[in-house]
Every structure is written in structure tokens, then in C-alpha cells.
Amino acid sequence: MREGGMENIAHTTERLLQLLKEHFGYTSFRHNQQAIIENTMAGKDSMVLMPTGGGKSICYQIPALALDGLTVVVSPLIALMKDQVDALRQNGIEAAFLNSTLSNYEQQDILERLPQQNKIALKSNLKLLYISPERLLGERNFLSYLKEKVKVALFAIDEAHCISSWGHDFRPEYLLLGNLKQHFPTIPVIALTATADVPTRNDIIQKLHFTNYATFENSFNRPNISYFIKPRKNYFDDLVNYLNTHESDAGIIYCLSRNGTETLAEKLQQHGINALAYHAGFEPQEREKRQEQFLKDEVRIMVATIAFGMGINKSNVRFVIHTDLPKNMEGYYQETGRAGRDGLPGEAILYYSGGDVLKMTKIVQVEGNEEQSKLMVKKLKQMADYCELRTCRRKYLLNYFNEKAGNYCGSCDVCLTDQVKQDMTIAAQKALSAVSRLQERFGINYVIDFLRGSSTTRPMHQSIKTYGAGKEYSKDQWRSFLKEMIQLGYLKQADGEYPVLQLTDDSWPILKGEVQVMLTTVTHEKAPLPEVLEAKKIAQPVEKDLFEALKTLRKQIAVSENVPPYIIFSDATLTELASYLPITRSDIAKINGFGEVKLEKYGEPFLEMVQDYCIQHQLYTRIQHKQAKRKR
User: Fold this and answer.
1) H or E segment at 229?
2) Which sequence ranges form a coiled-coil region, renumbered to this chain (predicted)?
């Protein structure tokens, strides 16, 4: 490459980093954000897979600032649009959304601010416009208006998995986005999603008619999130205890039904917990009001159906709890990813019962579409397998998305328990014999009933020799044994709506007494490995009283500006302030989140609070430790 070319690349990189610092307060890109941005700047299409909280929006917001013209962001939810636009405006970026919540006058004002073709750009021209696929491609034919009148620089499609029937959240209206390349063949398109397996991502690329494109895949690992599965039976007392020990934290609790959200929220309120229900059955105004209360930290706990949360950017959610089994791993991953978006520790807790699988099997099937039903049942089974693991949950989760992982993560309930294994060869032989004598035609629940000699077993089976041979173990113990035997390959479950138990090649040596079977019989908590604890440490101690005072200051500013507190600054920024203790204007500019716009707007009150705290407690700045860490 010629020297001039290298200089041009260096100049472009310098400009992108300048925009990042000026508007977002960061000095470097994360993961492969820079490569994605440069691919877009080169006029190529991009297929981007990045975990929730990984910084997807930066991948199109920085090009939007650098390119001449309008970036159109296709977004599925009105709430997401408002959230993103509020955050962009706080960072000094001209952005707006077009949807039904705006008056005709407001919509006309936005149209007048769109950069027009063959006209000199006005300083107040919009750089980003958020719009739903229905509005973009619907009856009003907004796409034609953009084509004829507006200088379009980029299309960004958020939640791109919605375009694929192989995805977990297919939306027919997204299919129309396949027309974009027909109308704008030279305009780059960036498709972004946090959840897409290989068939889904290939389907996205095909349906959007990408030809000159690159695929960017980030690690799906969210190391700051810890994963826990707990028994669903009598879960409420455990839930209340958990919420009371996290009384200053915000969280989301997902329930399957609308009625379930209202009932649980009411019970939590009776226990003095600040919780509200949310589901699609509420009037739009009421949904918007409740969501805003949660975003503004006026409500601590949102008890919701999955109608709540897609694209919600609230960065200080510390935990996500499921009281019912999610339909698939993609949905579970996306929902749990709403915890810890700021990079600080988060927890994902799922209350599980084996009976959930049967109930959910009927729900996930698509009437009149056998192929789609089979896919949904298969995904549900994978979700159930995850819940019944005796091996690292993070490994299973990452392997599901075709990512390799070690056998120990140190931050899931399996890795945090000692598993005592005993010789259970006789029990295993009883189980395998039962499956064989039942001609491999029945599922786990029936085999357990057969082994325990239940009266619900068919009369024709009660005369079989091994009927009732396993009465010494409870239903839960047998379920645990059978699931572990499946994981070990001693048994398998058939695919499809009826996952019957079947023998494998490894079954026969056990039945013949040639192989010893060791199964888990006791578990108890253990301490994480030292290296795991070390990785989770914050570089500097956090002054907790200062952190709480900074949260109060942030809330006061947010109320005065009528925006959610996390849009002013994330908890991660406040944590850095309370850790590194900047005491000069140049010091505070080194804190992530303090771009030029926010430094000018909010630098003084936050700086004064840190200065006063340091004087009161005779503390010195630790900003030099942050600089040393950055150099390393």
C-alpha cells in the first residue's frame, strides 16, 4: 500500500476516535467495533452479531456522524426509539424518531430537518432517524420519499433476527426490508442482532440480498453475568429474600402470563417491595407510563411478560429473574443480557420445574405449520436441557451459539457447587432396563412413574418385572439421574414433540455390568477459584458513600431534565468516579462517559462532589492508577 493510503487510514481512524471521545466519552473502541465501522465507511454491508450490552449502537452511530447524510435506523419498538434518541441528544447528536406518538406538526418538523438531496446541509439537519419497518415500508410509502428527496447515507437494521423465520422472534413486517437493496443499491446496510444461530444469520444475509458484505461475530460471553437455576417449587419465599438482600438494585422478573405478572407484582407489593406489572394487555399509555417509571428509577422491580424489554437500554439493571421456562435459548440469552449492560456484575436466575416443559410444549407449537412447530419444540428441549445440566451452564450457553468455552466458568451455580458422585450402577441398570422393557416408547415422566411403581402406570406395564424397582428414590432424584445419564450419553431423548427415552450404544455395557456408572447424589456450595475472584475485582476500591451521593446527584439532574438517570451517566461511570477520585477538570475528562458535551454540561457538579468528599475524608486522587491500567 502506498504511503498516502496509510496516511488516509490513519486520518480516518483518528477522526473516528475523536467522534467517539467527543460524543460518547470513550478513548478506544471495544471488541471489533472499529472494523465494523470501517467496513461501513467503505460502503460495504455488514452482518453484525454482538451480545446485548456489547456496544452494537456505536457501530452505526459513529458512521452516522462521520458520513454525509442521514442514517435511517429500523427499530421494532417505539420505546426503544425514544430511549435511543434521548441518549443521543444528551451526547449532542441530532436525532429523532418518527412514529404514531408524534403530532402531525412534530412529524412535519422532523421531515423538514432531514438532509435533502442536492442542497447544502444545515447545521440542524438530523443525523439519525429511528423508524419502524411498518412506517418505512407501509402505505405512506416513506421509502419512496427517502429515495426521491433525502440524502441517505446508511441503513441500520436493529434486532435483525426478526427478518428470519428460523429466528426465535420472527416478524412478518421485517420481510419487506428485503426491498432496501432494490431501491438503494449503493447505500450500505448494517444488520445487527444479539441472538442468531447459523441458519438464522444466513437467512438474514439472504433476505437482505447482501452481496458485497462482511460478517462480524463477537464473543457471546457476558463474563459479568452469573447464571443460576433454582427449583420452582415454593419459589416465592426465596424470591422475596433475594429482592430484600438487593434492596437498592433494579431488576426485571419475567412471567409467562399477563395474569401471572399482576399476581406476582401484587404479592411483592404486599411484602413492601417496589414492583409493578407490565404486559401487552395494558393500554398503550399505561404501558408507556410504567416503562418510564422503571427507566427513571421510580420503580425498582418490573414484573413483566416478554412484551417488555426488547432494546431497553437501561444500563443499571442488576438482575433478571425468570419464574417460568423461556421458550428457547435465544430468548433466554437476550432477556438475561438486559442485566449488567454497564459492564458491572449482574445475575440471571431461573426458577425451573420439569413440569414446565410439558406446559410449554403446547404453547410453542405453531398451528398449521408442522416444520415451524418441530423447530420450536426442539429449541424448547434445548432450553430444558440447559436447566437440568450437571456441567457448566456458561459452556452450554456459548456452545449453543457455536462458541468454544472451558469446562469451568466460576460464576454459575454448577461451577459454584461441589458435586459428590457415587457408584449408581444398579440404579442406572434399573433405568436402562425400564426403558428397554417399555420398548423405548415413553418419556422421562412415565419411566419415572414406572420405576417408582405409580398407580398411574398402565395396567399392562404393571406386570413387568422391573415395575416399582426404583421406589427407594424420589421423582426428583430419578429425574436428576436420568438427565445426567442423557448428558453422559448412556441414554438419549428422541427429537420432536414426544421426546421418548432411547438406549444408546453405551447403554449395553452398563446393562451387562461391564461399566461402572458414577452419578451426582449430593451438591453443596463452594468458593470460587482465586483466579475467578481476581478477575471480578474492580481495579480500585469503590467509595460506597460517594457512589450513593453521586447517584443522588444524577437523579436530581435527570428529574430536572426529564430523562432516565442512566442517560445522564451509567453506573459504570459513577463507579469510576467513586474509585479513581478525579479532582481536576483534566482528571475527570479521563473518566469513561465524560465526552466533550457531557464534560461541559455536567463536569462541574460531579467534580465538586468528588472534591468535597476527598477533602472530608482526607483522600487523594487515584487517577494515575487508571492511566497505568490503560497503558497495560
Assistant:
1) strand 225-231
2) none
Check if the beta carbon of residue 335 is closer than 8 Å to that of residue 356: no
Per-residue confidence band for 1, with pLDDT thresholds at 50, 70 and 90: very low
If you count them, how many residues does the chain have? 632
Q: Which grid coordinates belong to 571?
A: 453506573
Grid coordinates standing for 63? 458512521
The dihedral built from the CA positions of residue 332, 333, 334 and 339, taken in this order, carries a sign that is positive
pTM: 0.74
In the chain, the domains with their CATH numbers are 3-217 (3.40.50.300), 225-371+380-412 (3.40.50.300), 419-525 (1.10.10.10), 538-631 (1.10.150.80)
Q: Write the DSSP symbol of residue 232.
A: -
- Residue whose C-alpha cell reads 406489572 in the numeric block: 277
One-letter amino acid of 157: I
Q: Do the beta carbons of residue 315 and residue 288 sit within 8 Å?
A: no
Q: Report the SS3 class of residue 197.
A: coil
**Phi, psi of 22, deg, nearest 5:** -60, -45
Residue-wise pLDDT tens digits, 538-573 = 446 889 999 999 999 999 999 999 888 988 999 999
The secondary structure element, H or E, covering residue 140 is none
> How many CA atoms lie less than 13 Å away from 154 in the CB half-sphere?
31
Contact call for residues 351 and 231 (beta carbons, < 8 A) = yes
Residue type, 470: G
Buried b (16+ CB within 10 A) or exposed e, 516-539: ebebbbeeeeeebeeebeeeeeee
Nearest to 201 by CA among 156, 163, 175, 157: 163
Q: Quick one: pLDDT band at residue 363, thresholds 50, 70, 90?
A: confident
Residue 82 has pLDDT above 90, yes or no: no
DSSP, collapsed to helix, strand or coil, labels residue 202 as helix
Phi then psi for residue 181, to 5 deg, are -65, -25
Run of H or E residues at 285: helix 284-295
- Crossing angle for the helix pair 596-617 and 3-24, nearest 10 degrees? 60
Q: Give phi and psi for 157, each to the nearest 5.
A: -110, 105
CA 126 to CA 500: how far, in whole Å?
58
Q: Check: CB of residue 261 under 8 Å from CB of residue 279.
A: yes
Reduced to 3 states (helix: H, G, I; strand: E, B; else coil), residue 334 is helix
**439: alpha, beta or left? (left if phi > 0; alpha if psi -120 to 50):** left
Task: Select from 387, 253, 376, 349 the least CA-distant residue to 309.
Answer: 253
